[in-house]
Amino acid sequence: MTQLIGYQVAELASQAASAYQSEQQRLSEADRQLAAELEQLAARELQAWEQLTVTLIPGLVAEHLDWAANLLRLPAIASAQVQARIAAERRALEDELAAIEANPDYIDRELRINECAIHIAELDPVIEPLAASLGSLKAEPFFLSLVEIGYETPRYRHKWYELAFYRHWKYGDLVVERWGEPRGLTTFTAVRERWEQESKAFATLDGERRKWLTEKQRIEQLASRHTQLREWLTNIEERHWAQTRARVHDHLSELADRDLMQLFADYEPALYAAKRVAGIAAKRRYLEALRREWVAAPLAHVQTKLSKAMRSVDKYLRPKHRHSWFDGAEMQRKFRVSEDSWDKRWRNLDTARGRIVEFDRYDDFSLGRDVVWWHLMTEGEVKARFIPEVAHYYQHRSTRARGDDARDLAIAALAHEAGSASSESAFDDWS
Amino acid sequence: MIRGLQRRTAASIEPGRSQPSPRPGPKTPKRADFEVTLPAVISERDGCQALARVFEQRGYALARNIPLELGEHRFTADGWDAAARVGFEYLTHEAGDHLDLPPAVLARLRELIAAGELYLLLIDQHEADTLDDLSWAAHRFLDEVERRKGARSEGR
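Predict the joint structure of the above. Result:
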């Protein structure tokens, strides 16, 4: 029986860790690529829907609308209803426009905005120094507190034998020195009186400025609303066309893929567009499943194995194990990396993903035949049976093929024919 | 120098008071001594030392931690000149002084100070920004004590 010494086991664990690390990086990269491809497919699916709805509603022509409403069983897109909605909106827009155009504020808007701007411009240079002066006084420590406690007024309650009295004295003097004296004010009372006068003046002037600003904004909003209403009137048909297509999209997106295509079986242009919608949706489904089963799940598994292998390296290098003997076969088995199964998975993933991403023969999907998009895209080269529709399809097909095979054999036996070709090779890995 | 420190007086802030003497003391405070800061709270030990120094500079014979009887109330003054009946009480939370001076005791003290029976500087620890501020306030307080004592003796 082969025996391995501890540090040889650590070497085996290290080799396994290295393999897991490479696999982890490869899977992470594949995950990023699949995420990007799925994002592109989502955008392409929306484009496909746009193509389908434009095919069904090429414009707001009455006969197109009525035909589509009938085909889709969607009365809301019938010409009469669409035109009624357009007319209602047009009336509302025109009424609002007329009201604005009759408004004297709108008629004289330039004059009034100008008037507001002049008033604001006159007030600004008066308000700004006041605001700066009041701001600097507010920033003085204790100023507001001193005002509040009535320092230098009969309201002041602190006594001469309390430290607070001297503290207020100190801060009061600081305010006078820093703010009052540059303005020729030598007492806190004078500073406070100036503060009260300036605050009052500021409140009055700022209130007036706000009034003019509000007025200016109101007239500007009126003008802006007028421009918007004009624009909406100009593109009213285009907007309703887009809204109608959106209704069609909402209505059709409730249908299963096959029902969607079946609906347009007699109208080739829409059938092609519907096949494209269904095909791209299938691509998204398949890539999401591949990402989940062949990338995300193995990635989680490999991460766990990598952590275990790294812990084993540490373990077998510890003095306790480093020079101990271990069963070689068991250790080989413990740190065996199943690279063959990884290779098989990568081959399957690369093949399936390549075929799916590159596929563009949407028109090949035949409603009459028992086929799934997967088989059409991959030509059966890979069978991702973890996807229910794929599993069901190949199971059904296998059963049918075996049934055909049994029937063939019976016919052959009856006909005493020997050497009929085995169909086993055709099953590939279906079972 | 903060001009107000000399110009202003307790009397000028409390309406009806006359002007006290100019600021005495060995140190003329400089502007920088009164920077407005928010220092850590001054401990009772440091605060009392600074106050005691000023009182002694001004000629008071200060004893520390003296129990005072205020009629039915008692409390311990942190600094007290029994002959001059002048002292200070540093109110800190650490010494439990806020508990020692309940509202009734404080009210009695105020009455006695107003009547000129005694003079006690009351310092709330949270009102003291710096030790220099504390010293300066103590000088201003003693100026006012002397002015009041002078006024009382003139009145007799």
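The longest strand of chain B covers residues 73-81.
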